[in-house]
Each structure stands twice: as C-alpha cells, then as structure tokens.
C-alpha cells in the first residue's frame, strides 16, 4: 500500500528537483511573482495599500492591455504567417489614428474651421478636440465614422506598403524583412510628421465619469473607458469567429504552420497574405483610434512608443497566437500599471513592462500559448 | 603562365580596390563639400570647420559601424540596441570623471577620477552590460535577440531619464545621472591639455599667419585628428580579430551555429566574447562622440541613433570592415549632412518664398496648378523629408542591394581576403607544386584553398 505512494512522492520530488536544477530561472521568476502577489493581497487586506488606488491601476492596466492586445493581433498574425517581426506596425497604428481622427474632426467641427485644417487634426491654431467637444457621448456619429475610417484607411495603407515593400521580398527571409520594416517605420513616421506636424494635440472632451465605490475610495469610469472595452472585445470576438469559422481562418492557420505545405495543398498563399494584412492593418488602425479616444491626446510617435509593449505582449503570448496576444496584452498592461505599487512613478512602468518581456523570453521563449499558432 | 600573371594582376587590383574605393569616395566627398563651401561663400575658417565636422561624424560613425559589424557582420548577433551601449559608456565615464564637489547650479557630484581612468571605466561598463545582455539572450533567435536588445536600450535610456537616479549615494559615494535634464561635463577637457603641449605652439602660430584660427577651432582639429587615429586602431583591431582563428569561429557561427558547435567549439563563449568586445567598442564611441560637448541628456540616445548606424552598415555591407568605413562615409556625407547643405545652397541661389503653415495649405493650391506652396512647404521641411528619405533608402537597399557595396561577397569562413581568393589559390597551389593549373581560378579551387588555409592555421 505504502510502496506506490512513496514511489509517487519520490517521483514528483525528483521531477521537482530536476525542474529546479534545469530551469532555476523559471523557479526564481515564479517565486518572485508569487511573493509580489502575496504582498499585494496582504497589503490590501491590512490597508497598507489603498484598494481604490490599486483598483485604478488594474482598470487602467486593463484598458492599456486591451489596446495592446488588439493591436498585437495584427502583429502576431503577420509574424506568424509572413515570418518576420514587423517594426512598422507601431507606425501603422499612428497613421491609422491620424487618418481616422481627421475625419472625426471634419464631422464634428465642419462649421468652425475649413476642411483641410480639420482633416489634418488641426495642426495649428486654437481648434482642439476639447473645443469641438468631441466625445463618444457628445459626437457619437463622428467617433463611429472616424473609427471605421481609421480601420479602412489603414488597410489601404498597409496593402500599398505590402505591394511596394514586402511583396518583392517575399522569400528574402525574416531578417532582411525586419530591417526593411524598420526603414518603413522610419519613413512612415516622418511622412506623418510632414503631413500632420509634430505637435501633440488634445483630441477629446472627457465625458463625466461614474464613480464606483471601492473600499476606501471611488473608481471613476467614463464613457470612453466603456467604449474602449466594448469595441475591443467586439473586435476580438470578430477575429475569433473569422479565424475559427471561415475557410480563410483555416488557410491562415495552415500557412503559419507550414507555408510550403500550404502552397502545395493549393492554398492561394498570396490571397491569404493579403487577408492577413487586411485584418492586421484594420485592427491596428482601429486600436490606434481607440487609444487616442481613451487617452485624449495624439502625437506622431505614440504608435512607435507602443510598439515595444505590443512586441512584449505578442512574445509573452506566443507568436502567431491571437488569444496569446490578447492575453499577453492584458498581462503586460496590468503588470505595467500594477508595478507602480512598488516602483516610484516616472518611467519605471515601461521599464517593468520591458523587463517582463525579457523575462518571458528567457523563461519561455516560445510564449505562453505556444503551439497554438493563429488560433 | 600568362593567364596566371593576369590573374595576379587583377587580384592585386582587387586588393587595392577596397582601400582605393574608400580613398576615392572620401576624396569625392571632400571636394564636393569644398565646392559647397565655395558656393556658400564660406571663409577659410568656416570651410575648415565644415570639413572638421564632416570628418568628425564620419570617424564616429565609422567606428561604431565597425563595432556593429563585429556583432552582425561577423557573429550574426542582431543588435539593435547600439544606442544603449553607447549611453552606458558615456554616462559611466561622465559619472566617474565629474568632480566630487560640484560647482554651479543644478549639478551633481561624481567620483572625480582622472579622465583616462574614467574612459576606461566607461568602456568596461559597456562591456559588462553587454555581458549581462548577452548571457541570457544568446539562446534566442535573431529576431528575438533584436527585440531584447532594443528593449534593453530603451530600459537604459529610461533609467538614465528617471528622476530617482538624478542623484544617489552608493557605498558612501554620491553621484547622479542628472535625470531628464542630463549632466554637465564639468571636468578638465584633456584635448585642451594636449593643445597646450609645447609641440603645438609652432604649428598654431604658423597657421594663424594665414587663417584666423582660435584655440577652440585648433582644439577641434586636434580632436578630429585623434579620432582618425582611433578609427585606424578600430579598423586594425577588428581586421585582426576577423582574420584570427577567433574571427573564423565567429564567421562559422554566423553561417551555421550548430555545425560549429558540433565541431567542438563552445559557440556560446565565442558569442559572448564577441558581443562584449563590440559593446566595449560601442561604449568608447559613445564617449568619443559626446566627449567635447558641454553636457549630455538621455535624449541623445533615442533609437534613431541605432537606426542611422544600421543604415551606414547596410550601405557599406555587413561582414566587411572596409565596407563599414565606406558606408559611414557615404551615409554621413550623403544622407546625414548632405540634405542640409543642399538646402542651404538652394536657399542661397533662389528664393522659395514664404512656406505655408500646414500641409493642407500646401496641397490645396495644387488643384489650381499652383505648385509654389507645396515646393516651399517641402523645402521648409527638408529635415523631415531627410528622415523619410533615409527610411526609403534602407528599404531600397534591402530590396536591391542587401549585401551593400562591399558586403559578404564570397567570403565565408576563409582566412584569405575575399576578392583575391582565386588568385591566392593559384599561389598556394604553385607553392605546393601541384599541377592544378587547369582548375585555377574556378570556384572549385577556391574551396580547396580556404580549406588548405584553415588546415595550415590550426
């Protein structure tokens, strides 16, 4: 009776010991994470940490995470199917946001300024989104149309760039494509500067929030938070259905598994690649638009600054995995904000996010959702 | 026989070609810039300053590109965090060299070490940081490695920006990074010390008879001269490294890491050493780059610095030391400095008119076939256009000349210089008295030669 039990204990003990011996880093990272979680829990229970402050961090982190996750889907899809890390993805986000917001400005403020000026998101002068009272409750049509335009315009841009830049290099391999994408990122960012100028502008008038009472203080949630939540979740579900229920999704999964085999099987690879860009580009443009709606400011390099966080999310979730990128985005977003519990404010939240990414690469380079690519 | 002499001659030409190409390109650049100076009506002094600035930038870029070439061209380590390592070198140097008792407003104390020791400290710090990055990142694929290095560079920049490190005390020593506002280099500039050496008195008075040349200008020229010497040192060091057995292992790793491993080489150790050496060299470039400024802010190390360095590397061609120098020259003169001089020349010759304030005002009149506003708008935004152009050049290069001007070619793991391989073969063959003239100069023999060479080296 006792023999098998002891043997089982012995086996699990030796397995545990081999884990500790072979992957000490994983163990250390795990223990550190648990300690932090424990500290957070006990701190909130004893009142050492303010619950409402942590609630604020988690909520903000959730919002950031949704944006990162949504933008990450596109990056993850292109990474999985075209096999290269697209460094221009961040600037797709910026371009899409600018194009979409231009249209929003035109619809919301046609009576107060000329179209050209509005289409450029008011690069100079005294017109601002706040002055035009742009918001999801005050100008819902302008926001909705802007969101759709952001998606569509980015799709066109991305398809154009694929035609000019990436398609001639289809077989060049991951690294030359990566380097070319850095060139695209740079050129695109400064085309944005040329057209829209470097000025940072305020784009919205924040709607009044509803206070939700947490233990020791309120958590303010406004209509833009809710819009972001609803829109990103809806888009994510849409992508999920597209990839699971349609033949296109199946073809995409087949291609990210083995491109040559897919080609031999008769999958029209070029068409699948085009659809990959369409989905990825549309999502990145809309993610950019929603981010600007949520933060209330737009400038020419916010997408580029977001890019490393998106990479962090995609790598954490496992490249090519759509769910992985959503999950990774949420983890990165929430961890980034929660790190402020222990770290002083400043730029340390970004440092923490990049640190998490590097740790994820070291501990589990294939990502948390490894092996479930493009699904 | 005559065929062989021809071969040898053409090989000698090829051998001379790299140096000759660099010399020709640099000469062309200098002549062009002198002409530009003439058109703009610069004084002799202004002309010298222009050329001095150009030489300074070429030397700095050439050095850092050489260091990057060791990483990417030789070892295949895809480092896009170059700016981070440069920042570590420079900041460490500054923090070590700054006086213990700070003078002036908003200043932070340092350790007050002599400048040469501080420079050494900066270089070592960059190498150490390279070790810290390389140790865990080695197992990763090239694209993951790239993401880790750029994330690392951003972490470095953010930490130097962060206010908690503005001033801190460690082991009883107080120092600081200055946070976002940066730090002043309030230590004695060694170039001034060199300038005050007695040997320079004669030349300085001599030159001053012809051109008005203040001490600051003279020091600038001396510093650039020093940089050129250091650049030569970089080149020789990396050339020797590349040709040594160590360098051959690096190239073997670049071509096929698993095979190299299977041949009994500890590839990880080689990669770490190569990465650390490159990082140390980058740290030194970071120091030399900003050394003569009044101070430094973390903003100088944004990722676009790395982007410039990569463009220069790809223009010249990865895997070639001479290519790195050529690429740095072409990048600096053509892409980095060129557009600004072009703008000044156009401005001096024709009037482009008052530029419109926004892109819309520039594009609108185009529909009425009035192209003046768009021209002057684009002209006014030449700096922005320059960045767009750089990106386009990078894409074009990757599509059409991924190996750059002098890159890769046929050199794989061969110890013999690339271009003259077929010739080297015939020579080796000749020396070995093998009657293999029939195959000399074909690809088949060059293979034999490289193999022979490898054997003889071991």
Descriptors for this entry?
heterodimer, A: 375 residues, mainly alpha, two-stranded antiparallel ribbon, two-stranded antiparallel sheet, 14 helices, 71% helix, globular, B: 458 residues, 19 helices, 4 strands, 69% helix, 2% strand, disordered C terminus
Structure report:
The complex is a heterodimer of chains A (375) and B (458). By secondary structure, chain A is mostly helical. Chain A has one domain (50-363). Chain A contains 14 helices and 4 strands. Chain A has a two-stranded antiparallel ribbon. Chain B has helices at 2-39, 44-75, 82-97, 115-137, 142-161, 190-195, 201-210, 215-243, 245-255, 257-262, 267-290, 303-316, 321-336, 338-349, 359-363, 372-380, 382-400, 421-431, 443-457, and strands at residues 168-170, 173-175, 183-184, 295-296. Chain B has 458 residues and is mainly alpha-helical. In chain B, a hairpin with a 2-residue loop joins β1 and β2. The longest helix of chain B has 38 residues, at 2-39. Chain B has a domain at 51-303. A two-stranded antiparallel sheet of chain B has the order 1-2. In chain B, α2 packs across α9 and α3 (82-97) packs across α11 (267-290). Chains A and B meet through α5, α7, α12 and α14 of A and α5, α12, α15 and α17 of B.
Topology of helices and strands:
The complex is a heterodimer of chains A (375) and B (458).
Chain A: H1 2-22, H2 24-46, H3 51-82, H4 89-109, H5 115-119, H6 140-166, H7 174-196, E1 201-202, E2 210-214, E3 217-221, H8 223-245, H9 247-257, H10 259-264, H11 269-295, E4 297-298, H12 302-317, H13 322-338, H14 348-363
Chain B: H1 2-39, H2 44-75, H3 82-97, H4 115-137, H5 142-161, E1 168-170, E2 173-175, E3 183-184, H6 190-195, H7 201-210, H8 215-243, H9 245-255, H10 257-262, H11 267-290, E4 295-296, H12 303-316, H13 321-336, H14 338-349, H15 359-363, H16 372-380, H17 382-400, H18 421-431, H19 443-457
Antiparallel strand pairs in B: 1-2, 3-4
């Amino acid at each position: 009776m006792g023999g098998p039990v002891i043997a089982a204990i012995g086996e699990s003990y030796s397995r545990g010991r081999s884990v500790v011996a072979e992957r000490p880093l994983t163990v250390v990272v795990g223990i550190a994470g648990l300690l932090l979680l424990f500290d957070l829990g006990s701190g909130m229970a004893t009142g050492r940490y303010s619950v409402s402050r942590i609630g604020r961090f988690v909520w903000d982190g959730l919002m950031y995470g949704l944006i990162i996750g949504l933008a990450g889907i596109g990056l993850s899809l292109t990474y999985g199917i075209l096999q290269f890390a697209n460094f221009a993805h961040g600037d797709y986000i910026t371009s899409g946001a600018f194009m979409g917001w231009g249209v929003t400005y035109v619809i919301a403020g046609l009576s107060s300024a000329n179209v050209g000026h509005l289409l450029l998101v008011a690069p100079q002068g005294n017109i601002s989104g706040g002055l035009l009272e742009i918001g999801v409750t005050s100008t819902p049509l302008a926001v909705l149309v802007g969101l759709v335009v952001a998606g569509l315009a980015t799709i066109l841009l991305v398809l154009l760039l694929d035609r000019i830049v990436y398609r001639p290099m289809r077989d060049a391999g991951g690294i030359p494509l990566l380097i070319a994408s850095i060139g695209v990122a740079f050129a695109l960012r400064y085309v944005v500067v040329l057209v829209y100028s470097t000025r940072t502008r305020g784009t919205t008038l924040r709607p009044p929030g509803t206070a939700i009472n947490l233990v020791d203080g309120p958590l303010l949630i406004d209509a833009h938070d809710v819009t972001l939540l609803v829109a990103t979740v809806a888009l994510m579900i849409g992508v999920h259905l597209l990839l699971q229920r349609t033949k296109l999704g199946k073809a995409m999964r087949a291609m990210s598994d083995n491109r040559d085999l897919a080609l031999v099987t008769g999958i029209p690879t070029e068409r699948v690649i085009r659809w990959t860009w369409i989905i990825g580009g549309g999502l990145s443009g809309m993610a950019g638009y929603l981010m600007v709606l949520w933060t209330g400011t737009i400038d020419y390099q916010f997408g580029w600054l977001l890019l490393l966080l998106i990479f962090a999310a995609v790598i954490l979730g496992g490249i090519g995995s759509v769910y992985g990128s959503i999950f990774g985005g949420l983890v990165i977003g929430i961890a980034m904000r929660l790190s402020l519990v222990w770290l002083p404010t400043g730029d340390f939240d970004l440092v923490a996010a990049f640190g998490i990414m590097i740790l994820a690469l070291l501990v589990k380079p294939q990502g948390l959702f490894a092996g479930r690519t493009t699904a | 026989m005559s065929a062989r002499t021809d071969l040898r001659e053409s090989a000698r030409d090829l051998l001379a070609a790299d140096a000759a190409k660099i010399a020709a390109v640099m000469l062309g650049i200098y002549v062009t810039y002198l002409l530009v100076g003439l058109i703009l009506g610069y004084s002799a002094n202004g002309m010298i300053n222009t050329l001095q600035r150009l030489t300074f930038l070429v030397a700095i870029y050439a050095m850092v590109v050489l260091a990057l070439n060791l990483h990417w061209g030789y070892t295949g380590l895809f480092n896009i965090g170059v700016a981070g390592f440069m920042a570590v070198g420079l900041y460490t140097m500054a923090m070590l060299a700054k006086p213990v008792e700070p003078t002036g407003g908003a200043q932070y104390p340092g350790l007050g070490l002599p400048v040469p020791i501080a420079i050494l400290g900066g270089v070592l710090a960059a190498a150490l940081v390279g070790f810290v990055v390389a140790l865990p990142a080695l197992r990763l694929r090239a694209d993951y490695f790239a993401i880790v290095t750029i994330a690392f560079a951003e972490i470095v920049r953010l930490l130097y920006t962060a206010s908690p490190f503005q001033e801190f005390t460690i082991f009883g020593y107080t120092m600081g990074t200055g946070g976002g506002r940066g730090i002043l280099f309030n230590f004695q500039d060694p170039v001034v010390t060199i300038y005050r050496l007695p040997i320079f008195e004669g030349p300085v008075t001599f030159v001053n008879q012809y051109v008005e040349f203040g001490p600051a200008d003279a020091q600038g020229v001396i510093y650039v001269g020093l940089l050129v010497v250091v650049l030569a040192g970089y080149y020789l060091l990396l050339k020797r490294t590349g040709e040594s057995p160590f360098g051959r292992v690096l190239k073997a790793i670049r071509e096929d890491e698993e095979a190299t491993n299977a041949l009994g080489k500890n590839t990880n150790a080689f990669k770490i050493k190569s990465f650390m050496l490159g990082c140390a060299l980058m740290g030194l470039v970071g120091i030399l780059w900003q050394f003569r400024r009044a101070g430094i802010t973390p903003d100088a190390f944004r990722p676009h610095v790395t982007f410039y360095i990569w463009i220069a590397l790809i223009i010249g061609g990865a895997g070639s030391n001479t290519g790195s120098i050529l690429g740095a020259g072409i990048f600096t003169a053509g892409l980095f400095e060129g557009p600004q001089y072009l703008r000044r020349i156009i401005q001096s010759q024709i009037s482009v008119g008052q530029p419109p304030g926004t892109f819309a005002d520039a594009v609108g009149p185009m529909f009425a076939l009035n192209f003046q506003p768009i021209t002057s708008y684009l002209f006014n935004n030449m700096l922005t256009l320059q960045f767009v152009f750089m990106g386009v050049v990078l894409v074009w290069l990757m599509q059409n000349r991924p190996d750059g001007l002098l890159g890769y070619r046929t050199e794989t793991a061969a110890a013999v210089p690339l271009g003259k391989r077929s010739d080297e073969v015939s020579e080796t063959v000749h020396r070995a008295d093998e009657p293999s003239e029939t195959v000399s100069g074909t690809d088949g023999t060059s293979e034999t030669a490289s193999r022979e060479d490898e054997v003889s080296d071991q």
